[in-house]
Amino acid sequence: MSKLTPRKIRTFVSDPHNLTQFPFSYILNVKRACTPIYPKDASTIVSYVIDLDRGAHVLEAGTGNGSLTLYLARAVAGSIDNGAETQQGRVDTFDIRESHIRQAEQTVGNFARGIYRDAVKFHNGSPSSILSKGLDPLYDGAVLDMPEPRHELDVVVQNLKNDRFLVCYLPNITQVVDLLSFIKKNNMPLAMDDCVDVMIQEWEVRSTVIRNPQNDGANEVPQDPVWICRPKNFDVKGHTAYLVKLRKCQNIDSQRV
């Protein structure tokens, strides 16, 4: 896997600066086929909810725009360390809409010259229609981004390693209740570890000048800077979805250990 070399840009007031492409800004500006999973949720899913590492094998159902796909691939992809390439992980991502698959392929392929493209396998179809045909078992983690994840829950759980995590991305709390009721009713080997709603409050922090009360319209620069520190109430990155963190907790058959 080749290393990403930052591009250099030259401004009209200073020396050249390095400009490296990062997923959080890329995802917010990339062409959209549908509403993406935003960086605040994607980074939480990768680092906290399913806790992925390099070399992991992860399932994503509901590829959509490919924003989470990129974050997952970045987490599991191998790297070059002291000349030796580490183990390459893989993302198996599923979507029943071919248009979503095409857009997601562009989203992943156009980021950083396609450095993470080889870490993703795109599947046009549902997990239940494809996994039975024989993909590599078992997954280290899974993400379901669909209105009714219960339809794919059984096949995903069967292909998930025990004591590993599955997260469902659900915009409405009623969907969370329906999901947990379904799991309980069907006695599925899943326990809810957490249900989180990620919100970010941005702050405005800057120095300012003071208006001169004796001279209308005139400003004076104080000897010691005066700082403005306040929340950006007009730009709160608020609720997008609930992240339901489920842990597979199937009883272990001692004869299989």
TrEMBL record:
One Gene Ontology cellular component: tRNA (m1A) methyltransferase complex
Signal peptide from the UniProt entry: none
TM annotation in the entry: none
Ranges for domain tRNA (adenine(58)-N(1))-methyltransferase catalytic subunit TRM61 C-terminal: 32-214
GO molecular function, one term: tRNA (adenine(58)-N1)-methyltransferase activity
InterPro entries the UniProt entry points to: SAM-dependent_MTases_sf, TRM61_C, tRNA_MeTrfase_Gcd14
EC numbers on record: 2.1.1.220
Pfam families, alphabetized: GCD14
Highest taxon, organism lineage: Eukaryota
PROSITE patterns: SAM_TRM61
Entries under CDD domains matching the protein: AdoMet_MTases
Gene3D superfamilies in the record: Vaccinia Virus protein VP39
Keyword Acetylation belongs to the record: no
EC top class named in words: transferase
GO biological process: tRNA methylation
Protein name (database record): tRNA (adenine(58)-N(1))-methyltransferase catalytic subunit TRM61
Organism expressing this protein natively: Umbelopsis vinacea
